[in-house]
Amino acid sequence: MTHLDDRVRNHYRALQLDSQVLASISNTPNSKSRFRFPAMSWPTWGAATVFASLLVASLAMGVHEFGSRSERTARTLNEAAMNHSTRLQFEFETSSLAQVDASMNQLPFEVVLPVKFNQEYELLGARYCTLNGELAAHVKFLNQRSDKQVSLFMTRAVEDLKKIKTTTDNIDGVNVTLWNESGLFYAMASR
Asked: Where are the domains of the chain?
């Protein structure tokens, strides 16, 4: 031990409790002076228990729903980015959206462009894919201004997809936007 350790130890050994404080501690009855809950009747305890249980259950459901939504959105963003990045062959090579719609007869919806889609895109072709487990159309365009490919995915807006709010994110260098419009769910991806 060091000289400093000895000095600290000697200092605290020399300290004493104030005599008035010591007397007040000595005069308290030796009953168990632990914390006690206030006296409440059984119906009051029952109501408090029910309230606490409902509070915990509603918080748990809210956390689960938030997690599910976040997970669903992340999964869909990742799937759109991955589908955009693959170099799979088009099943339908055409420059006509009407031809794409007529050819993709397995889809339970009509292939239509969303309202906010620009006219500066040239249609390259399309293929079937899935988005969030739903059969979807993957339509590829060429942005004539930037000379970059743009993927537009569309599928039916089923309940899971209706819950996804409009969102934009960058997944591994791919910009992906998700939104619902006119009964369809869209995802647009580009680098």
From this structure: 66-190
